[in-house]
Every structure is written in structure tokens, then in C-alpha cells.
Amino acid sequence: MSRLASALLALATAAAVAVAVAARPAVDVTATVAFGEGYTPLFGFDNILRSADDRTVSLLLDRTTGSGFISSAMYQHGFFSASIKLPSDYTAGVVVAFYTSNGDVFPKTHDELDFEFLGNIRGKPWRMQTNMYGNGSVSRGREERYVLPFDPTTEFHRYSILWARDAVVFYVDDVPVRHLRHARAGRDFPAKPMSLYATVWDASNWATSGGRYRVDYHYGPFVASFTDLALAGCRASSPTEEGCADALAASDPAVMTLAKQQAMRQFRERNMVYSYCYDTRRYPVPFPECDLVESERSRFKDSGHRLALRRRRVGRRPPNKADM
């Protein structure tokens, strides 16, 4: 092949790559949507309050019912986010959830990614729980619990789920708090289209001290507010789904830099109070994705619960994203 032909072939190849990249659907993880643009009420319709500009929605739990909403579409991967303010005062038995699931479509093999916020008695903090199910792995719960380094009832804080083909990352105020890899979780990694949900409900039978403290409706209604709603997802069965998944995998939330890994390690060291990876009573054989760190293991009982967690002043935030 002549030099001219080689040069022309190289130019043509570069042009084709450029066209392919340009045609790749953009994934804007910073964009937010109005409630009506991406969501629809799920239950407790009278307990769903929408702001005049439709950018904030409040879910109420009272004696009659809880409430919830669901995304209008199903997604095959995406970045899902909301700024949430939790109910204050006595909230024992109350659970606020922000999660993806397909349990209504695949009841026996459902996938799920959870943020669950567990209420508490007066003077005790809310606890945040993350979890993952894949292919119906409900008997292999991967729960982790944390106390938050701020009061989640006084102002909004951002909670995000990044679900890409090769990993899941949970974020709090743009700081990663948990990273799960597809390669290590195997068949238990979520792989089917899911919807996004937000709910508030009565979980008196388990949420606070194993059901010892129940919801007291004298303190109700319990109000959880959501704003800055983000649905940067790849719609299931869309012609651009594959390109969207590629773009999502290259987006900022999917890239775990060294600084992000360090910030995540710091958050977990300071705030994690339960991990299934250290719960040898429940799981004598650790899960494949568990990175067992001996110095960390020594801080947990064989029940997976933290031995002791030094109380820190509420109001201190996780590391700033600018530092990452």
C-alpha cells in the first residue's frame, strides 16, 4: 500500500471514530428534571405534595398511609440522584427509601439498588443503609449501614446511585461511600431494566432496634422532601441504549479516581456501623466482592456490627468534591 493510500485510510478511520464518538448519546449527570417530566405518583396520592414549579416533591406518612413515586420509564443503567431532607424529631419505625428495582416486572429474579434511611427515637441519629440484589438474590442481602456526618433533617443532602455495566457506586453529597464491581459480584449484579422509586412507609416491625420502637403517629405526619431530581439514565429498549451505556461508563461518577477512593475509605472508616462482609454469623464464607482489611475487621464484631464508634460533632460534612 502506498504512503498516500495509508494516509487516506488513517484519515478515514479517524473520521469514522470521530463520527461514532459524536453520535454517542451524551449523559448529563448534572441535569435535573421537573417531577412531571420524569416521574409519576405510585401510591398514597393524597400524601404527595408538589411545589408550584414542580421541582420539589414531599412524601408524607400518616395514620392512613405512606406514599411514593416511580420513574415514568425503565432504565438499563443510569445515574439517579436526589437531594433529600428527612423528617425530624421522633421517627422510630419510619423508613424513607430511594432506590431502583424491577420487582413488579421480575418478581422471582428481581434486581435492586437501595438507599434506605432508618428513623430513630428522639436524640438518636437516622441511619443510612445501602444494599444490592441481583437476579433474585434476596437471600444474600448485601446490607451496609452508616451514621451520617451531618443532620439530614435540617437541610437537603444529595444521594446518588451510579449503575453502570461494570460497577455500582453510591454517593452522598458527591462523595462515594460504596463501590461494587460487576466482575466480583457475578450473577448477583443487577442486569435487567429497573425503575427508580422513592417512598416513605411504616416499617415498625424491623426498622428501629429490630422492631422494639414503633412509629408513633403523635409525631406525624412524617415528611420527606425531594428536590434536584436527576434521571440521567439509558432508557430500556432505546436504539441508543448501547451508546448511552458507553457514555455513562465514561462519566465523572463512574470514574473512581485515587482521590475518590481515599475519600470513600475515610467515610467508611468514620461512619460505617454494619457490614455484611464482617457478619460471619450470617455469612461464614465472605462474598467474592468483600475486601477484608485486617485493620478494619478488628473494629467489627462477628455479627458485622461496629464495636464502638466515636461520636463526632453533627454538622461536619464529608470531604469536599473540590478536593477530589
Can you describe this structure?
There is one protein chain. With 324 residues, the chain is an alpha+beta fold. The chain has one domain: Sandwich (Jelly Rolls). It is built from 6 helices and 15 strands. It has helices spanning 3-23, 35-38, 182-185, 241-249, 258-271, 294-297; strands spanning 39-43, 48-50, 57-61, 67-71, 75-85, 94-101, 112-118, 127-133, 144-147, 157-163, 167-172, 175-181, 195-202, 222-235, 272-275. The strands form 2 sheets. The protein has an 8-stranded antiparallel beta sheet. Strands 2-3-14-5-10-11-12 form a 7-stranded antiparallel beta sheet. The longest helix is centred in the first third of the chain and has 21 residues, at 3-23. The protein is globular. Residues 11-24 have low confidence and may be disordered.
